[in-house]
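Repro case for the chain-ordering regression, as requested:
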Amino acid sequence: MGKVKQPKNLTPRIEWLRNYFFEGVSRPWNNEYKVFTTGEEHDEMYNELTYYIVPETYTFFGTFQNGLPQIARRIEIPDCFYGWSIAERRAWFVKEAMTKHVPLDILPGDLLCGANFNIFTSQCLTKKEKKRRDKALYGKDGLRAETIEFHDRGFGNCGATSGHLIPDYATILSKGFKYVIEQLDTSYESLSEKQRKGAAGAQLRAMKTAAEMPCELAKRYAARLKILAANEKDRVRKAELIQMSLNLEVVPFNPARDLWQAVQSLWLTHMLVMSDENYPGPGVSFGRLDQYLYPYYLKSVDQGMTEEFMKEILECMWVHCNTVYDAQIKVGANQGITAGFGQLFMISGIGDKGQDMTNELSYMLLDVIDDMSPILEPKPNVRLHKNSPDKLLKRIVEMIAESQGAPFLLNFDERSMAGLLREAKKSGCEDKINASNVWNYASVGCMENSMVGNDRSSTVDINLNLLKAVELTLVRGGELREYKDMLWNKPYPPKKHSEDTGDPTKFATFEEFYAAFEKHIRYIVRKIAELYDKSDCVRADFQPTPYLSLLIKGCIEKALDVTQGGAELRFITVEGVTFASTVDSLLAVKYLVYDKKVCTMAELIEALKNNWEGNEKLQAIAKNKAPKYGRDDDDADEMARKVMELWAEETWKYKTAATDAQLRPGMLSWNYWVGDGYVLPASPDGRKNGQFLSNAVCPCNGADTKGPTSNINSVGKALGGRTENGDYMDYINYLPNGASHTITLSPSLVRDDAHKDKLAAFLKAYTENGGTALQINILDVDTLIDAQKHPAEYRHLLVRVTGYNAYFTSIGRELQNEIIAREIHNKF
Amino acid sequence: MRTYILDLQKMSTEDGPGIRTTVFFKGCNLKCAWCHNPESIAFYRHIYWLEERCMGCQSCVSICPKKAITSENGIISIDARLCDFCMKCVEECPMNAIEVKGMETSVEELVKELMKDKAFYDASGGGVTLSGGEAVLNWEYLLPLLQQLKQRGVHTAVDTAGCYPFPILQKLLPYTDLILYDLKHIDNVLHNEFTGVENTLIFQNAARLGKLKSPKVWIRTPIIPGATDTKENIIGIAKFIKENMPDIERWELISFNNLAGQKYKLLGKEWQYKDVELLTRTKMESLCALAKKQVKKAMWSGATKSEVTL
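-- result from build under test --
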């Protein structure tokens, strides 16, 4: 087992920049939030609505709300300000802040400009508008209270948030903002006089202002670079500064002419999305970087740019991407967000004819990742498929071996595309997503599949605890425990939520139980869709992002902001949380009450009310004897498939009122399954309140006792498997937004070339039998120690030596210690 | 003879090429002193109690129709003479703390289970390995099993110690792609001493196997401290392979591991290798170098003092 992965092959320039970034708070420069206000008393800068999806932040709302005005700098607003629409005000204010008030910092040796972009700006509302918004959010029946109670009562969490989409960067690189401005002008000219005076005209004017922002910022940087160049003594650096200045005289207004200009254009365009949304990056993703940067790469190769210099340009972008984390540099890492901000980009994948699209730049990007890791941003995701080249697989496996776990996620094209084509059918947008373009999909944030450049893919906005429906079934639409206000630890009054589906103790068959469960699934999906709709309305009313709207196809044509439904494609993902916990609970009810008659329904309900206390034997039977999802057991996996189809189908029934966005299903790997384990009561699968729930599409912790291949086969079946009438080829995928799957493998799989080949083949087989996205972890010493402490969760952990294998948890403590000791020994 | 399957190991990466499922059969006609899978030696089933899993609910004691299970101070004892493997205790135990080693499965059921990982076999050049115990002694079961696997395009391997009349193995060969063949000791007396059988038949069969064009053969030699780890033994086996089996694909020297103690304990036995130290990497490398002088395809794997592979 290895040491912690170290960066390598870095040039002195990049090494300095990387080290500088990791100096963190002690850096003289950082990209901490800069706050700008109109200076009026009613002005608000913190938009808590954006954080309704992050329950960990609920307790900080007040702090931010009250704290920001105290550090805010005032920007003088013109007299006509409130005569404008909100979008025009926002566009002007953000542009003013970014071009005139944010310092134009350029770090030593840096090859790219665009440093300070984390800002909080005035919401630019009139007193009256503010009052209306306050009522919607903070009133007695306001969204804040409803959202918090909804979460506290174990349903899940939701709220319209920012980021999580892939802007149309490719157009900016190839045509420049010049083209976008032309489009805006054409669109404006086509408006009637009346329309110009109305919302459409105001929106296009706002977008025009927003379109001038990157161009003006580039000009200012260019001028600053000239001064720096004039004062620079080092000849090489001087030449670089002059070229950087020339670059910014070209891009992003004009098309980029080489890789350096393309990356500069990309970065500036990208960072301003985060400024515009006042949101440091979560899920603002790059799409297929190795594809749309490739023409510029080829040009630079032609012009004789060295590979080393091209890598340096890309690595500078890596450093810039990481400065998003400076946002809250002084208040701890990232507010308890554990997964990073997720500026995701894709490598490889198939092309229009199903051919593999891996190119030299794909490999260069992998080298950059390898050289820079460990580092959090941007997040790479490698697209694999049936015809992925051996060279690519080999490179990937090498990187997994060296990093003791993949420094990227793997995305699987066939299953992913099946999901997106299903989405097209279900939402009636086959004109926009079909066989002719689905291959060009990319992922957002972690692994959420989306179309590129025209898709307002809100991929994390709704997180629904499916397990809640089991609870509702057991207590006729009521509650199995006393829920508490998490902030004040004050009990909520008991509440009947869903319809009374009858006394479960009278259900003669499991089918009756399941029929009631179906009704409650319908209820929880409807309930969360309704709650979400309210937040989508508030956003549409008060929170335009005119700059981002420039980069999403449809907004200019419709003269409509992206927050108001301007995008060609509009999706809101309902992320199904607690999937395996739900499936295993249903399997346990069937096993305990109906098949084996181990207990009566009344006894089971009583045991759950008592959090299994005093019923340890029944709990053990639920845990150890009832069938489980994740073991390639066809009957159990059929239950998983059925539940998947049920809740997924339910989501297609809903669209948002304000933006006409289609709800769709997905399973993201976020951390709610940890925290909500303390909220949701004990469940029939043997889990106690306080224990973790299942993660995304993964089987419950420790349930996959038949090893990784069985685990993978189960996941593939749960997503719909493969049938004659597939959505893409013979693949079915109920979850168009993707299914996050994590697998831990033993280090023996990467110990030599022969075994690395086996791992490469394992990934190929995943394209056949598995899901849409895979994270590979390699077992380490900490896991072994944890396995020793919690054997029940690691029954599947094998110790292998040639010709011998045994479960780690069953070999006795002494031997366990010996193995751990040897591993630690190897580590140092 | 009844065929009992000890275990099914999916995603096995250590028993032949690619990703495989290894089926361990019960029953062996050798009794190697160092055996790592002692529960595979007997042809009959074993029942035992796993103390660390037990929650002390006594379900097993009360359910047993034969009164074979007793409990004293939290320690469960199972009287093997009374047990008729009705499986009631196994089914009843909420913690899976009672295990029976040896299950009966029809060939059809087994094939169905093995086919579930076909995609992994195909992508990796892997397949199914039949191991044991001595898998070949179950040849009547193996024959239709191998036939059905071949019909379905699965690569098949048989792991064997070779101590039986050759025609038995011959029946299986048309449906076997690879034989993993153990050659443990060149010295007949020592072979008898360590494994309980003479090596004459084993080496004769190996020589006959060596004359055949197919299937492919991998020779495996366990390197056991104080038993098979001598220069003489390696040189002797090397010479034999060179003369009689020149076309083998691989010769694996597999270093001893000491992880089987707990398995012996469960069977109520003491393992004589319990406190024996692992070999060093240097020792394995020097033996392998010796082997390579005669047989180029020699290689070594397994645990050594500095590493246990997980």
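Ordering looks correct now. The first helix of chain A runs from residue 12 to 22.
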